[in-house]
Amino acid sequence: MQDIHKVYLDTNVIILGQESNENHTLVEMSKMGIIKLFVSEKVTMERRARSFKQSEIIDKIIRQEKILGEEKFFKLFNEAIKEREKLKKLEKYEVKFWMQGRPENVKSTFRGLTWLGLLGADFIELFDKKSERVLLGELLTTQKIKDADAFHVMEAHSAEMDYFLTWDDKLIKKTKRISWIKPKILTPKIFIEKISSSE
């Protein structure tokens, strides 16, 4: 019996939802038991951040009502409300689409370390048995990987995922040089080709 591949999905994969042919294939592969899909709380937060940002734009427009004048204010306000409603509807479609593939929340020691970080560096050092803080530092400083991307990579690495799927070519290029990262970091397209050719 062949092992089921554990696959972590980056936010940029999730937000494409049903718009991407590759995502349909990933969901089907999950239903067939070829892969198991995983996401992190960070993915969920980043996905929801789009509508939160739009709410901030609405608040800013409201604060500038007197400066904008009535006609411009109502035009901008109505456009911003429509955009926020569009984003909320999109989020619902994304969730509904991905639930077909039954993604699970990733479980990692790294996630626990990030919470301990709120209590101070001493707590992290006590519980960081796999030197994940040092590995994160390497991603951020030596490899110059953006904070959010580094956290995703560490979540997937810590949880011992087999694959990390992203559409971020820069991240893929930077992580190719790092030998200790457990998951292979690929685009969904390359991953599907790779798995399909080995079946």
Description of the molecule:
With 199 residues, the chain is α/β, with parallel strands linked by helices. It has eleven helices and five strands, in the order E-H-H-E-H-H-H-E-H-H-H-H-E-H-E-H. The chain has one domain (5-44, 99-198): 3-Layer(aba) Sandwich (Rossmann fold). The chain is 64% helix and 9% strand. Strands 3-2-1-4-5 form a five-stranded parallel β-sheet, with helices on both faces. Helix 3 (41-63) runs antiparallel to helix 5 (70-99) and helix 8 packs antiparallel against helix 9 (147-158).
Main attributes of the structure:
Rossmann fold; alpha/beta; 199 residues; single chain; globular; five-stranded parallel beta sheet
Q: What order do the helices and strands follow?
A: EHHEHHHEHHHHEHEH
CATH class: Alpha Beta
Query: Helical region count?
Result: 11
- Estimated radius of gyration: 20 Å
Strand order in the sheet with the most strands: 3-2-1-4-5
Mean pLDDT rating? 81
Strand content: 5-15%
The structural class is alpha/beta
Task: Kindly give the count of domains.
Answer: 1
Shape: globular
> Main β-sheet, in a few words?
5 strands, parallel
Q: What is the fold named in CATH at topology level?
A: Rossmann fold
Furnish the topology, listing elements before pairings.
Layout: E1 5-9, H1 11-14, H2 21-31, E2 35-39, H3 41-63, H4 65-68, H5 70-99, E3 104-105, H6 109-116, H7 121-127, H8 132-142, H9 147-158, E4 163-165, H10 169-175, E5 184-186, H11 188-198
Parallel strand pairs: 1-2, 1-4, 2-3, 4-5
Summarize the entry for a quick read.
The chain is of the alpha/beta class and 199 residues long. The chain is built from eleven helices and five strands, in the order βααβαααβααααβαβα. The protein has a single domain (5-44, 99-198), classed as Rossmann fold.
